[in-house]
Amino acid sequence: MPGRIVIIGGGQAGVQLADTLRREGHEGEIALIAADPDWPYQRPPLSKAYLTGDFAAERLPLRPPAFYETARIDLRRGTAAVSIDRAAKTIALSKGDALAYDALVLATGAKVIIPPIPGAGLPGVFVLRTLADADAIKARMADASRVVVIGGGFIGLETAASARKMRQEVTVVEALDRLMKRAVSAPVSAFFHSLHTRHGVDIRYDARVSRIQPDGEDLSIVLSVGGSITADLVILGAGVTPETALAETAGLECADGVITDTYCRTSDAAIYAIGDCARWPDPRTGRMLRLESIQTAADQARTLAKTLTGTPTGYDAVPWFWSDQYEVKLQMAGLSEGHDRAVTRGDPDADGFSIFYFRDGRLIAADSINAPADHMAARKILGAQPPELTPEQAADPAFDLRAAF
Length: 405
Fold this sequence. Notes:
Layout: E1 5-8, H1 12-23, E2 30-34, H2 49-52, H3 65-70, E3 73-77, E4 81-85, E5 90-93, E6 98-100, E7 103-106, E8 110-112, E9 125-127, H4 131-141, E10 146-150, H5 154-165, E11 169-173, H6 186-198, E12 202-204, E13 209-215, E14 218-223, E15 228-231, E16 233-236, E17 240-242, H7 245-249, E18 258-259, E19 271-273, E20 278-281, E21 288-289, H8 294-308, E22 320-325, E23 328-334, E24 341-347, E25 352-359, E26 362-369, H9 372-383, H10 391-395
Parallel strand pairs: 1-2, 1-7, 2-3, 7-19, 9-16, 10-11, 10-16, 11-12, 18-20
Antiparallel strand pairs: 4-5, 5-6, 8-17, 13-14, 14-15, 20-21, 22-23, 23-26, 24-25, 25-26
């Protein structure tokens, strides 16, 4: 069992790991290096209830400040890891000191993609990743009336919904031909297109932004397909990419994330990676996965804590995600990529239904919209090996999904 465990990253993965290590009986030192100066906080509310003012700042911290002292966790806020010396087993910190480790965990998360758009650095153009970002957007939105969101993924659409709740005029500019295309099927995209347009959002598909330029006190967003949109506020929602610079500089194997095995071990036996920055082999499909998911981050942290405290445990949890937009909750279980059949359970026009995805007759994923019971059942069914549910059963609303697990 390692003595001093150093965790780089103060997000969900890092904090959960530090907490679970103590719960699993680790008595050695734990250092948590967090570049963000704020107490480690939840990110999901930033694009939703926090942005609209319905979620108080006091509720954001992942743990109360007193937790870190009580749990004997050396939390270093506002401190970045600069480099890793694998031979000496030390990390250099931004404040000039160095810290030795017996086991090092990279929980560095992901960073926002800033598209190479001329004018992306102008005042009034924002990204949304940190609490400081959310606060800056809230302050600007107080005097704004027209918002352009560049990107129709989860963060972009959640932000668009929040802006509409705040009575902003909202336009979403999406480079692809449907919303959330990289994550959901066409029927789910169509549902959310209808949802947002019903709430007054103007969605522009197959459109890229050529440049952003000042237009008096406003901003002009010039589109590649011609024309422009005038706005007071622009939010870049082009997605994120794994934060792997530290790992790459240290010579660890990386490819769209820090490569690990099922035990979260990197190519260096003393270094582990979890959360948004990690890429690991999925025991169900055999392919390498990297998921930007709060639940994946927390589950990997809990799993790794067992390994680091003497019970080697591989990560094999069913991935699941959620997104809140207006009054709608989308819950996703499993990964629908590569499905060869999809069946609908419930009525899409009633704003409460699910789509179950199958490959070779076996359930691989389910997307549920305002159907939490379907979602919970799907997670349990997917956890079985093999999942025991037929497409005909899934499509039959009279069939009790609990009979399949």
